[in-house]
Amino acid sequence: MTTLDDKLLGEKLHYYCSSSSEGSDDEEESGKSIETPVASATESSEWNGLSRNTGPKGVIEDWQKYKQLQREQLEEAEKDRLAKFRQMAITCAADNQIENIDDEESDEFLLEYRKKRMQEMMAQYGNKSVCFGAVVNIKSPNEFLKMVDEEEKTTTIIVHVYDNNNTACLKINDFLGKLAEQYKHVKFCKVLTTAAGLSLQFKIAGVPAFLVYKNKQIIGNFIKLTTEFSDDFCEGDVENFLIENGILGNQSSVDAGEKHSN
Predict the structure, then answer these.
(1) How do residues 172-212 score in pLDDT, each as one tens digit?
(2) CDD domains in the record, alphabetically (predicted)?
(3) pLDDT tens, 176-185?
(4) What letter does residue 136 receive in the DSSP assignment?
């Protein structure tokens, strides 16, 4: 049985030969007994070098080289592991820096977005060439149609359809006068149901009503507004209703935009 020492120091091949005593003529040739050489196959080492050393010293040297190679491989693996850890640490630090940069960029983006939105609102409400500031009283269907067709494309027109016998209608007319002074670039109008050529049924069941136009198109149609307000509604309720439905821009935003543009 091969031992570890045999593996390290190598094994010698021993040949054994036995025969009968010398030359007896009557001995048959088949009586000769010859032992074949016995040799243990040396197990192959994991060392894959090109060494041809087969003696004890050569095997030891090969084994030492093999162990040295193992140590070098382990050291290289450790270096790679440390390098990866360092890279991960650098990446984490970089990610934190990127998050801070992203926060700063988000703030800059929001500021730029607000600025652009202000400019859009000023384009809508701040056209200095079109300024009203008072409620326009429409007296006939033709005047109604002309007012819608000939107004600037960017101008929002809010028409209050009312009846003189309706208390809520009269309150809204009063409120519109104040809103027209605040939103001078929105065209506020009022028209009696009879002047607009509307039916008696609309006079009974439809007023007060808002018809909203822009660029010759109706963009809002709100009838029986008393269902939207309480009995003691005020100017702020009417303004908020128009803002919430996208008809008016928030006046504080418009004022801020005007100050910014100046």
Answers:
(1) 999 999 999 999 999 999 999 999 888 989 999 999 999 99
(2) Phd_like_Phd
(3) 999 999 999 9
(4) E
Whole-angstrom CA distances from 152 to 78, 120, 135 are: 76, 16, 17
Band (139; pLDDT cuts 50, 70, 90): very high
Tokens of 111: 């500021």
The span from the CA of 64 to the CA of 257, in Å, is 83
> CB under 8 Å to 241, separation ≥6 — which residues?
222, 225, 228, 229
Nearest to 214 by CA among 143, 158, 139: 158
Q: pLDDT (tens digit, 9 = 90+) per residue, 146-168?
A: 989 999 989 999 999 999 999 99
Cβ atoms < 10 Å from Cβ of 83: 10
Backbone angles phi, psi at 49, to 5 degrees: -75, -175
Burial call 235-254: b when 16+ CB within 10 Å, e when fewer: bebbbebbeeeebbbeeebb
| Mean pLDDT in residue range 45-66 | 59
Provide the 8-state DSSP code for 17: -
The answer to whether residues 135 and 188 touch, using CB atoms and an 8 Å cutoff, is: yes
Give SS3 for 190.
strand
Nearest residue to 208 via CA among 196, 216, 243, 139: 196
Q: Identify each DSSP E strand in 63-163 by its residue range.
A: 136-138, 156-162
